[in-house]
Amino acid sequence: MRTMAICVLSILAAAPAVAEPALAPFVAQYDVRYGRMAVGTTRTELAEANGHWTIESTSTASGFARVIASGTLKQRSEFDLLDDGPRPRSYAFDDGTGRTSRDVALEFDWRAGRVSGTAEDEPVDLATVAGLQDAASMQALVLARLRSGREPGTIAMIEKDKVKYYRYTLLRRETLATALGEVETVVYRSARDGSDRETLTWHAPKLGFAAVQAEQRVDGKRGFQTYIRSFEGDAPLQIREGD
Predict the structure, then answer these.
(1) What is the reported pTM?
(2) CA–CA dist 117, 79 (Å, integer)
């Protein structure tokens, strides 16, 4: 289920016809499947208040998945939005069990050039690198770049106590049938070089490039998949479930 949460958030390009702000707040809800089995739902919210940005994802298991993940998974990033994209201030992951053995709590000190905290009960103390993101702010960076007409490129992300690099590649443009109706999308693949794991994400330009579908693959086999259920936000086109 932690993989599901990160995929969703991961989990997540032609330039817009008119100039748009770097980011726009929204709330999106998704159904989550593993193979053909429904395993839960996820809610992602990108919010701004007085120049302070947050992106938060909450994932809840359902059906058989509740046997192995009864809690509600939450991950949240607080970040500043600079000219070159989000710069994280803090990141937290809570697996919902009340134990800390899988939780993550990180603080970014950009003046000192360090990231510190804990990941799965182990201490973290790493040097920052240019453009470093956490698992949640990375999605905000992808959105910011797509909205400005740029490619996401290669993004550095802190994962537990290591910095890993994910390369984003445009695969195709595709009209996708969704719960919101037919939506034009651009499809990106994200993966680390040499890894057998990859994530495909369908981004909708008319929803400010928010993700409307995503799926994780391992050795080409589909794992977790997310499908948009509803969307509400300040993107050029606002759609709600049932409209």
Answers:
(1) 0.84
(2) 16
